[in-house]
Amino acid sequence: MPPLGRRRVLLLSSAAATVLAAGVAVVGTAEAASTLGASAAQTGRYFGAAIAAGKLGDSTYSRILTTEFNSVTPENEMKWDATEPNQNQFNYSGGDRILNQGISMGAKVRGHALLWHQQQPGWAQSMSGTALRNAAINHVTQVATHYRGKIYAWDVVNEAFADGGSGGRRDSNLQRTGNDWIEAAFRAARAADPNAKLCYNDYNTDGVNAKSTGVLNMVKDFKARGVPIDCVGFQSHLGTGIPGDYQANLQRFADAGVDVQITELDVAQGSNQANVYASVTKACMAVSRCTGITVWGIRDSDSWRTGENPLLFDNSGNKKAAYTSVLNALNAGGTNNPPPSSPSSPPPNPGTGACSASVTLNSWNGGYVANVRVTAGSAAVNGWTVSLTIPSGGAVTSTWSATNSGTSGAVSFRNVSYNGQIPAGGNTEFGFQGTGTGPTATPSCQAS
Ligand code: G3I
Question: How far apart, in whole angstroms, are the C-alpha atoms of residue 78 and residue 88?
Answer without folding.
Answer: 15
